[in-house]
Fold this sequence. Notes:
The structure holds two protein chains of two kinds. Chain A is of the alpha/beta class. Chain A has one domain: 3-Layer(aba) Sandwich (Rossmann fold). Helices cover about 40% and strands about 10% of the residues of chain A. Chain A has ten helices and seven strands. In chain A, the strands form two sheets. A five-stranded parallel sheet of chain A has the order 1-2-3-7-6, with helices on both faces. Chain A is globular and about 50 Å long. The model of chain A has no long low-confidence stretch (mean pLDDT about 95). Chain B is α/β, with parallel strands linked by helices. Chain B has two domains: about 5-170, Thiamin diphosphate (ThDP)-binding fold, Pyr/PP domains (Rossmann fold); about 185-315, Rossmann fold (3-Layer(aba) Sandwich). Chain B has 13 helices and 14 strands. A seven-stranded mixed sheet of chain B has the order 3-2-4-5-7-6-12, with helices on both faces. In chain B, strands 9-11-10-13-14 form a five-stranded mixed sheet, sandwiched between helices. In chain B, strands 1-8 form a two-stranded antiparallel sheet. In chain B, helix 1 (about 5-20) packs parallel to helix 8 (about 140-155), helix 4 (about 55-70) runs parallel beside helix 6 (about 85-95) and helix 10 packs across helix 11 (about 255-265).
Amino acid sequence: MDCKELQKTAAQIRMTIIKAVSAAGSGHPGGSLSAADILTTLYFRVMDVDPKYPQKPDRDKFILSKGHAAPVLYATLAEKGFFPKEDVLTLRKINGKFQGHPDMNKVIGVEMSTGSLGQGLSAAVGMAMANKIDRNQGRIYALMGDGEIQEGMIWEAAMSASHYKLDNLTGIVDWNGIQIDGRNDEIMTVTPVADKFKAFGWNVINADGHDIKELIDAFEKAKVFKGKPTVIVAKTVKGKGVSFMENTNAWHGKAPDEDQTKKALEELGGAL
Amino acid sequence: MAEKMATRDAYGKILIKLGEKYENLVVMDADLSGSTKSAAFGKEYPERFFNMGIAEQNLYGTAAGLAISGKIVCASTFAMFATGRAFEIIRNSIGYTRANVKICASHAGITTGEDGASHQTFEDIALMRTIPGMTIVNPADGVSAMKLIEQAVAFKGPCYVRLGRAAVPLIYAESVDIKIGKANRLREGKDVAIIATGIMVNEALAAAQELSEEGIEATVIDMHTIKPMDKDAVIEAAKETGAIVTAEEHSIIGGLGGAVAEVLSQNHPVKMKMVGQMDTYGESGKPEELKVKYGMTSANIVKAVKNIKAIKAIKSSI
Lengths: 272, 318
């Protein structure tokens, strides 16, 4: 897929996010929308994953460490063909597969159950270690939230990833600058993000998290970088693509009503 | 005097054998491999041993990732830090995912000794018991520890293995038949049943011997598997004797005593007494001194049995 097609795919994914969260009546649109271009780039350009052979042993694996952004993962997997898009509309409903936070035992294509922040990166480190032992060429990708990196466990995992020279691991920080209670720099300062990872022994690449060409370039560089894990610090906009959801914590964990849903879908449809 | 072995030494020993049997067995530790005895595996299979440093949350988080990728993982540290520090990681990354991780934790209970209260956990069984699908084994001696660990590694799913620091007498012969989920009856008696776990099984046997000399006959049960508990064995013992004493090197809240009480109160209520750590922290001291001070010896079991016998006598005279 070229960049233009990828942008269209991202818009489709964003529309599924809005529809699913709207149908659920709750959920996390802000951080799902901010990560949509990152997941699109990974699943439709960078990663080796096949919905027809989801358990392929040497596939690449994606871990959504910021598990509350479940809608973007479900929407991306649906877009990729793991299951029909309509299925995602059962998000957060009782007896459904699409839990508020991803469950690997319920949804095909979900590689790790996440939701409790800070744990996904450790799981990704373990998977990267396993691939090293097995000389498995599959790569591991872990998406963290910027608020999430306030968890101490992230830095335990970061330390171990560089100690064991896990160059088959790529972390991504969805740096939208906003967490539930407000801006990162008001709640708990996370900057300088790049320098922190550098100090923990990672190769760091800065990127615009909505510039697909830049993201492709960053992921390709990470693939060939040897001896260290790479983190892509992706500058993003919370709620990206829906004007009234952008750059505010108000839409971190809230569903749009009927009118808002219509407006959001119109805006996103314009990008197609 | 019976031969002695710490259950952590049994763990170190059996790991070497299991490493040969299972090519996908990975062992991890958090800078305590000399104490938990996982270091022996590291020497034998360095490419399958990972020291994760002093970071228990990441130890169990990475263990989950390795297990989900097809490895059998034995991840060790002290019981306090495994179940306390990393509780939520064990719950969400290992329990919820049903990851094939064996949490082999040593230095449980008062016999951790000189390190004192910060390192002596009495809450670990209670914590692990609340996690759905978690198997919990607490071996009484070195022989049963090796057999139970071998079985824990053979089944797929999370398991908590509670191991001790102090050398304890061997109870079982090498030929013993011991199975996860099936309690072992070690002695038969009609007056009372002592259900014990871990190092308290040996204390229970000593107590039963002493009681027998006074004419009180006690059944002794080794409840090495706390979860899933052998309910039939508990109910049967209650029906036969009408009085149960539990004995554990763990808090009387939420551990073996609690688990047995849950079974009996819903199936066949009888009088119960619980021997274990009262609702208090420990302190530094020699294991044997601490067992006496905190009430986890054969003498405490004897006292509990006599107490419950007295209650039984009053009840039957009314």
